[in-house]
Amino acid sequence: MTNGQPKFTYDEASLDRIIKYLSIERLAAYLVLTRKDRERAIRLYERNTELSEALYGVVQGLEVTLRNAVHNILAADHGQNWQDAVALEASEKSAVDEAKRSIENRRETITQSRIVAELTFGFWVRLFSASYDKTLWGRSLRKITPLRIDRRAVYGRLKDMKTLRNRIAHHNRIIGHPKTVATQYHDLIETIGWFSGDTRDWVEQTNCVGERLEKKFPPKPPLRDSTVREKQASD
User: Fold this and answer.
1) Tens digits of per-residue pLDDT, 55-71?
2) For the chain, which residues make up each domain, given as ranges?
3) Can you tell me the distance from the alpha carbon of 92 to that of 128, in angstroms, rounded to the nearest whole number?
4) Where in the chain does DSSP place strands (E)?
5) DSSP labels for 202-230?
6) pLDDT of 138-185, one tens digit each?
7) Where are the alpha helices (DSSP H) in 121-196?
8) 151 closest CA partner among 173, 135, 166, 167
9) In the chain, count of helices (H) and strands (E)?
10) Exposed end of the chain (fewer CB within 10 Å): N or C?
11) CA 41-33-157 angle, 5° bins
């Protein structure tokens, strides 16, 4: 909340309206985590939004760093038009063709930089799969990651990061999982460092994830007056 921003007041009527439009299905996990306390569930949802917002910039750092690191090494080893020079699987060929069509539909000139920007995070992740172990990894991609990290480890981590990215992009829950947000953040920063130490330092020193993580989840609020009166009447 910024200075001067009105503070939202929670009451039963406002909670009814918020839950109606967020949907009970979307809030179900939050209600479980807060033992069906509706106000705390909404506040936990807000915290999930805050942390997702903070992590989004870090995910962006990984995605942009990954695609440019891969493009640069493949262009150096196979030529600027490496998508046509290397043996891509059918799904990746289709992704490249779709990227070109999207660029043409915008009436833009097809360039390598535009193709690279158009291809999805999933495309770049799949280039580290077993299908490309001998064609891309052995000759090229292993050179852009630390030698101690093997292809399976890189691919497994990138798949995890893709799942996190998609959960953030689709406004899903990233808190309350076995792997904490702090751990996921650590993994993101570490993974960026596999491809570029300078970019890792830049992203790590310019994001607000640590600040958001230090913010404590609100304690259970005191009983409202009506609840207190009801409890006293029953004593």
Assistant:
1) 999 999 999 999 999 99
2) 50-213
3) 12
4) none
5) HHHHH--HHHHHHSPPPPPPPPPHHHHHH
6) 989 999 998 889 999 999 999 999 999 999 999 999 999 999 999 999
7) 121-126, 151-169, 181-195
8) 135
9) 12, 0
10) C
11) 110
